[in-house]
Design a protein that fits this description.
single chain, paralog of FGE (formylglycine-generating enzyme), 4 domains
Amino acid sequence: MTHRPRAEVADDRLDRYLTLRARSQHLVRDLSAEDQLAQSMPDASPTKWHLAHTTWFFETFLLTPHLPGYQAFDPRFGFLFNSYYETLGPRQPRPERGLLTRPSLQEVMAYRAHVDEAMGRLLASPDDSFAGLLDLGIAHEEQHQELILMDVLHLFAQSPLKPAYGRGPAPAPAPAPSPAGFVGFEGGLVEIGHAGERFAFDNEGPRHQVYLAPFSLADRLVTNGEWLNFMADGGYERAEFWLSDGWARVQAEAWRAPLYWEPGPKGWLAMDLHGLRPVDPAAPVSHISYYEAEAYATWAGARLPTEAEWEHAAAQGPVQGVFLGRGTPAPSPAEGDARTLRQMFGDLWEWTRSAYSPYPGFVSAPGAVGEYNGKFMSGQMVLRGGACVTPPGHVRTTYRNFFHPHQRWMFSGLRLARDGVAPPARRSAFEADVLAGLSRGQKSVPPKYFYDAPGSRLFEDICDLPEYYPTRTELALLAEVAPELSAYVPQGAALVEFGSGASLKTRQLLDHAPQIAVYTPIDISPSALEAAVESLSSDYPDLMLAPLLEDFTIALDLPDVAEGRAAFGFFPGSTIGNLLPEEAVEFLANARHLLGKGARFLIGADLVKAESVLVAAYDDVQGVTAAFNLNLLARMNRELGADFDVEAFAHRAVWNGPMSRIEMHLEALRDQSVRVAGRRFDFTAGETIHTENSHKFTPDQIARLAGQAGWALERQWVSGEPAFGLFLLVN
């Protein structure tokens, strides 16, 4: 075995130390003296205090005992900058650190320079007995680099001016990720904890065995868009989702959204290190407490992972992610292969359901450093993985972070877990959405799953019903305005229709705009696409047809023949009314990204009218709409191995005035249990599955939704009663 020269080792550790110290000062270089002095809450500390405390750590634990003749910069600093070490004597109370107007920032920087010079002498010495303490001091300051950014964000969030820490543009909103899948693990007797190689905090060991039952982890973090659905379903108003202490906290502090979120004129806004900006539905939800993470998991029909499950799963892949150093820190939407675990490291600390306690065989280190972790092993919960504000190289698979369950100011998110191993193949979106929806307090299934082959045929029958006015009203309005619309379609354009179905309304545009060169219908139903393509190919022989079999709400790329062409989007049928308002904004934003700059987008929307007219349209006397709704149960029986008794459920259509929408439900006519994809769901008589919303709008509401997604309303056309509108948006 060869050994590196001692001088080379000394140079490496000095370079490592100085790089660490420079990064701390770089993080605060643009903060004013007032910023560095302020303290926004008892849990936080002024930036100036962080810089001095980490310096005190090196002075106290390395220089004083290991550098002969070292003179403390100022003996009084031990009281000011000791954090919690009882062994080392009294200290400034944490909530009062913001009262320390002295020493000045200039004196703190002089203190750092004094200690750095002495550390240079110590690290150049032949003594290496302090190597473990040096590693601890470096890891300790890396923790405070993260705390600096957390505390700065909390401080800036209190200001009505909402200042931005970051330099440069904020990340652009990303397309919504695909529905989360689950990756299964067989469990068994496994080992967790640090094995002793290289540096680790003492709370990461000893390595020991634990037994894990089979389990599955979601392949990505929960997103803001998914959290908005939780909120829309009364997540913060329904006690059944919450632990008792969590519900008490919700009531006492009036929680209605994650920390740093606030309502804006065009939807929710969130404060981050870039300032106050619209919530990005695709980004992972951040700044949530353990109580909120637990409530969401209950609502979603899942749970949080244990820390042993998380570590065992994370050990299967590399430690890589979005850590500090890639621009202004912000968690990023999930990328990559959806069949593997993503976002395990970086982005956000992930709550586990494990209480922070010592591992079997844990013994605190002797002396004051033994207080570093051992004294906190009670009343807190474990988080894993690191965050976008965590320095690169700081975390490991075994790293254990911990916070009190009510705290929200750290960069914290969640990943769902389930008991049992998921199938080796990724679940279909249909199966995943149905299982998630039936697990909620208000059982639900997304309306996009109505449109299998039988459902598509039934919907065509609905469109011919005398009560169902939307289709014929929209067709008449399209026929009237199509000649005028053709002027907005560029030569050689690609017509992109979202949720195309039979493409009947499309013909109005194709007949009046022969300059359309490519037609891309996007639909989730293969049979509907095949029928539409077959019909259109014979009637429009010069038109290039490029169908896209996809959920139109998450389509990311157009077919090659449509790429690069001027795009004209088409979204008829008032399908936008089937989406929750936040989902509509997310869809419109995704469509804007898909269609590109300069694109126009024609949307059909049903307008508010008399309740009697609306209910009749969704509950026809012939029972066609009832058959359409009940077909969803038949589809689950056919495709998911469910055992619904279709005759034990009834179609219900009701007007929800406060939400301005017709709701369709399937009501259980008796108490019963049903199995779907191997899972059991119980129904009581009168309980419903919520299958569809059909929001009704005013023109001003459409303009607001479009504006929130970045579109501008260019033209609108409104029919006579029963009123229906066509709205032309421009990007």
